[in-house]
Specification:
Helices cover 26% and strands 26% of the residues. β1 and β2 form a beta hairpin. By secondary structure, the protein is of the alpha+beta class.
């Protein structure tokens, strides 16, 4: 869900943590960092991926510049694009036979379907994702 439903304090802490990790590993590129928020508004890092990551796939449809375009810009030595979010978004992975519902998904207003072209569906296999767009809120 973007924007995340977290406090400004947690958002700042998450950004600070991600920037620290990127600095420590000397990151040049893009990175996804998955975090959990604790009851006392702390954060726990669950996973980091120094590459475009499925947790950022919502940027394809909801931001002026996606994580993939940003990486291409970095590789080509171009300036970064705007990360502005033009829509709120909810992204859901399509696992196994969930991708078979693509006709119904395409019928939903604001739904952006991405199928990965995999020949065979298996339980637990990511077959694609859907991003559902909503008008942009004022949240960060």
């Amino acid at each position: 869900i973007a924007p995340a439903e977290i406090s400004a304090k947690v958002a700042a802490k998450a950004e600070e943590t991600a920037r620290h990790i990127a600095g420590e590993i000397g990151l040049v590129g893009v990175m996804g960092v998955e975090m959990f928020v604790t009851r006392d508004e702390g954060i726990l890092v669950n996973e980091m991926a120094p590459r475009p990551h499925n947790s950022g796939h919502w940027t394809i449809d909801a931001c002026l510049t996606s994580q993939f375009e940003q990486l291409a810009r970095i590789v080509c030595g171009l300036p970064l694009g705007s990360t502005e979010r033009h829509s709120d978004a909810e992204m859901k992975n399509l696992i196994g036979d969930e991708a078979d519902a693509w006709p119904e998904i395409l019928a939903e207003p604001g739904a952006c379907l991405h199928l990965y072209g995999k020949a065979e569906s298996r339980p637990g296999r990511k077959m694609g994702h859907v991003t559902r767009l909503k008008p942009r809120s004022t949240a960060v």
